[in-house]
Every structure is written in C-alpha cells, then in structure tokens.
Amino acid sequence: MLEIDGISKRFGSTVALDGMSFTVRPGELYGFVGANGAGKTTTMRIALGVLAADAGEVRLGGRALDAASRRRIGYMPEERGLYPRMAVGTQLRYLAELRGRSAAQAREAADRWTERLGLTERRGDEVQRLSLGNQQRVQLAAALVAEPDVLVLDEPFSGLDPMAVDVMSEVLRERRDAGAPVVFSSHQLELVERLCDRVGIVRAGRLVAEGAVAELRDASAVEVLVDAPQAPAGWADGVPGVARARAADGGTVLTLADAPHTDLEATLGAVLDAARRTGPVHEFRRRRPTLAEIYRDAVAESQAEVAA
Amino acid sequence: MTGTLRPVLLIARREFASRVRGRAFVVGTVVVLVLLGVYAAVIATIASGDDTARVGVTGPAIALTGPLERAAPTEGLELTVVPQPDVATGEAAVRAGDLDALIGGEPARPRVYVESEPDAQTERVIVDATSSVARDGFLVARGVDPAALDAAVAESGPVIVAAEPPDPQAGQRLGLGLAGAFLLFFSIQTYGAMVAQGVVEEKASRVVEIVLSSVRPWQLLLGKVLGLGAVGLLQLVVLGGAGLAVAGAAGILVTAAGLVSTLVWVVVWYLLGFALYATVFAAAGSLVSRQEDTQSVLSPVTITVLLGFVVGFNLLTYDQRGTPITVLSLLPPFSPLFMPARIALGVAPAGQIVLALVLTIAFTAGVLALGGRIYANSVLRTGARVSLREALGRSRG
C-alpha cells in the first residue's frame, strides 16, 4: 500500500502542494488527474525522493519510504530521459543494477522486457538511434526492469502511438493483477476512466475528489437527457427540482437539484410531464456523466469554494 | 555498506567503460603519444646533428691530420679526416656537401675551403690544430720536447671545493618536474571538464531524474568522479610511461634521477587534484541545463587554473628556489600542479610537502562538502541557469 500523507511543498512563494493525501492499495490501478501545474508531478517526484517535501510523509506498506524502499518503485518521470549514447540492453541492465538487482537478474529482466515490448532487434542500438515511439518503450522498460513492487508513472500515455497505448494498458493491468499498487497521471480522461479502479482529482496542490468512477458518478448531481424536438427554449425552467438546463447530446440536459432519493421519482415525473406538454418526446433517460464532466465539476466546485 | 557502495561502483564502472571505449579517448591518447614521439625525435636530431664533421686535407696540410684528430674530442666533435688528391677535387666535394671543409697549404697557415662559412665547432678544432703545429715547431726549434711540456701542463690545474656542488642531474630533474606539472595540468583540465560535460549531459537528456530516483546525489557525484578519475589516471600512466620510454630511448634520460618517487608523487597529487577540481567542475556543470552553456560556467575555473599554471611553470623554469613558487605550491588549488615538480627538483623540504598535503586535503574536503551541496540542489533544476545563491540553499533530504 502506497500512502501519500499530508504532503506540502512550496517553491519560493508558490504553493505547489498543500496537504496532498491519497492511498493506493495493493492490486489497485489509481488514476491521478488534474490540470497542468496542479501538483501531480511534484507529488510523484516527492514520492520517489527526487524532491524533498516541506511537510508530510510517503509510506510504503506502513513504513516511511527510505532510499532502500524507494528502489522498489518503478518510476517513469514526466521528463523522459535515457543516456542517448548507451545501447538499449546495456542501459536497461545498468538501471536495474542501480536499483539493486544482481547482474544476472538485470540481464534476464532486460532481455525479457525488450522482447515483450518488441525491442529485441534494438538491444544493441544506441537509444538516440531509435524512433520516438521505441524510445518511449525503452522508457517503460526502464521503469519495469528492476521488477518493482509499486509503479509510479507520470503521463505514461503521452506521446504513445495507439499500439503502444494498448501495450502500456495491458502492462499496467498485469502489474495491478499481480498485486502491485499502480498509480499514473494522465490528461487522457477516457483512458483513465476505462483503466482505473479509482481516480483522484487534484487542483491547486490538493485532492478535491477521490473514488471509483462509479462512486464519483453517484456522488455527482443527477442529469436527465430529454429530446423533445418541438420544445421551446426554456421549457423546463419552471419545473420544480431542476437546477440547470443546457443544450447537449442532441437534446436538453437537465441537472437536477440535490434532493433525497425519495423525491427523485417525483421530480423525474414532473420533468417528463413538462416535456410531453411541448409535443412528442423522442428520448428521455438518466445521463451518466463522463469522467471529464465529473472532473470539470469537481474543479469548478473547489474553485467556487476558494472564491467564497 | 555494500548497499551504499555498490551503486557508486556501478556508476564509476559505467563512466569508465563509456569513456575508455569512446573514440575520443583512444584517438586523443594516440595523438598525444605521436606528438611526444615526434618531439623526442626532433630533440634527438637537433642534439646530435652538430656533433659530426668531415674534413678533407690535401698537400702539406695532410700533416694536420694528427693534430686535428687530437683537438676534436676536446671540442666534443666527432671528426673524420679524409685525405684528398688535390684542391680541385676537395673543393668539388665541399660544394657537393660530401665534406664540411677542405684544408690545403701550409700546416701553420692553411687555406680552409668551405661552402659559405665554417661551422664554429669545426673552426675551433682547426684553429687548435694549427696553433699546436706552430707551437710544436717553435718548441722543437728551441730544443724542447712538446710531449714533455704537455705532460707537465696536464698535471697542473686547480682543485674546486664547492660548498653546494651542482646536481649533475639538475637538467633531468627539471625536465621531469616540468613534464609532471604539464601532465597533471592536462589531465585535470581534460577530465575535470569531462565530469562537467557528463553532468550537463545527464541534465540535458533528463536521465538524471531516473538515476536520482535510484541513488543519492552524492553517490552519483562520487561515482562520476571516481570513474573519470580512473580514466584520467590510466591516460596519465600511459602517457607518462611512454614519455619516459621515449626519453630513455633517445638518451635524454640516462639515469633514474628520483624517477620512481617522482612518479609516485605525481599519482598521489593527481588523485588529490582530481578530486578537488572534478568536484568544482561537477558543481559548476550542475548549474546549467544545456551543453551550450557549459563553457560559461567552466571558464572562471579553467582560466584560474590556466593562469596559475602559466605563472608556476615559468617560476619552475627560472626561479625554482624562489619564494613565489614556494607560496604557489603551498596554496591548495595549485599544490597538485607544482608540489610534485618541486619534489622532483629536490627543492621541497619535507615540512612543506606535509603542509601542502594537509592544506590540500582540508581544502578538498571543504570543496567536496560545498560542491556536493551545490550539485544536489541544482542537478534536477532545468531551464535557466541556477544562481549560486539558490544552489547553496537548503539541501534536499
């Protein structure tokens, strides 16, 4: 279990992290989502000991991370980088040995991962001679070659071709299924939604929402999509229980006001009645917000809180 | 302990392997070796070129053969005297370059035919020979045996009692000292700059973040300095050994004038000097993120070392017992360059050697602490050049 507990970090007068906390359980794929500058990279760098936190602690299996336990974390930094003039195989073996693997283990793992990632033919080539896509694969191999117990990947999908995205997704799932806590950040929210067991949304150095995508959905306001082609603009304005209305998805999306579940049926009935009064209704259904929408709402809400 | 040390050795091994296998190292070493060889060959030619001469004699001047051959060794000339049938043949041989001079006519006042002007050494030998012919004739005419006179003169002469006899190996010692100083300067500059270059390369390619998620900054710094220091040492030994072999073969270096102890001292001071300068270079390199900016942070260091080296080199050559070189060799940043030279020259008292060692070790320890801190604070900062003030701030945990 990887625990990020109350981490704060300032760079001069800028607050990068302000009490960042979350937990990644064993066998869990955790998506870390937020705008540029929200603090994702800083959090990961602190977890890897590349930066020092001003306050807070990172724990692995209940114990504060030290140099030895950090070596058990596979890391892909946001700023990709390898020794450009070092051969792929030599480089992977070197990085594995730096993380405490024996020469034999390193050789075996380097061979296995290059084969798995389709780099067998490239083992002897200098990294700078590879295509960008292949360099990304070597970078992933570098994160995996020391057989880490935990994976921390900063934007692992950025710059990958669709094939590599599939390989990467497969590898992440596989590590998760093998019982490793896996955390990665991404701007590709559909991908996060599809892959992750849980998601943490970060804004201005704090976690503003966290949970399984389904939980986050349930927690967000109920939306209804109504397609009533003859309805005039503002037809739903007077309906009790409707907070907002907007045109989207080929109809009107109504956001219902937070209300106890007993009232939900009544509100839905009132909405349907109002729609039918305008003419035929082609579609009427509960709408599932996407992660992107949940994310926007969470960020907007926390912004409103800050403003208030 | 092994957990802490193994990464350092791995890093050192990588640095060593990637440099020694690199073309720059092999080509650079070979080029310096070739230059050394050419230099030695030129010196040997210049040194031996003037020491032989062929002189022709003809007519009555053939009587000069004996006196010429006796006079030549006192002038350090290897002289071959070749009888010629007549002046015309001899002159032709001079013009053709087969003879350096042709001597004809009366032995006491001969005519010397040369191409343009006589070689100074040859001329002195001829003058010696003609005067001895004239003197012998004069003595014999007065009934004195010239051989008896020579024997009497040979037994005379003063006996010099020197308070400090000059060192017959002074030249060799100076040569060794200067060569040592030069090699140290060359190695420290070259491999120190390589440390800086390696630091910037890791920063520029961003690989440093992966490496630093595995090891501590001090382990990376130490591994780099050890690895490149070993490469520099290897080259120093190759070049130094080749230089000595060439010098020995060319006859410049006849005896082992404190050779072994000089070599040991050069290595000891190289290790100290390299640790000192490599740390400074690494710290300087960590302040920038692009290769293009490396020179701007290194120049203050390289220029200081270069100025110190030029001043010290001249002092060693012209004023090796003076106060300025003594002071320079005691100042830590310059001790590694000049103390071994002064030791080779035999002008460094034991007390000064110990003092210089202590000062340099203390200074190096300070530089390691400070440089390590700058390095740790700056090595992950990308973008604009990091100011020294920021770099000296609170170190990361």
UniProtKB/TrEMBL annotation, chain A:
Keywords: ATP-binding, Nucleotide-binding, Transport
Taxonomic superkingdom: Bacteria
Residues annotated as domain ABC transporter: 2-229
GO MF, one annotated term: ATP binding
Entry's family note: Belongs to the ABC transporter superfamily.
Protein name: ABC-2 type transport system ATP-binding protein
UniProtKB/TrEMBL annotation, chain B:
Location in the cell: Membrane
Presence of keyword Nucleus: no
InterPro entries: ABC2_TM
Any Pfam family: ABC2_membrane_3
Domain ABC-2 type transporter transmembrane: 25-371
Membrane topology: Multi-pass membrane protein
Residues passing through the membrane, by range: 24-47, 174-196, 225-257, 263-285, 297-318, 338-371
Keywords recorded for this protein, A-Z: Membrane, Transmembrane, Transmembrane helix
Major localisation: membrane
GO molecular function terms listed in the Swiss-Prot or TrEMBL record: ABC-type transporter activity
A GO cellular-component term linked to this record: membrane
Superkingdom per UniProt: Bacteria
Name under which the protein is recorded: ABC-2 type transport system permease protein
Species of origin: Actinomycetospora succinea
Classification lineage: Bacteria, Bacillati, Actinomycetota, Actinomycetes, Pseudonocardiales
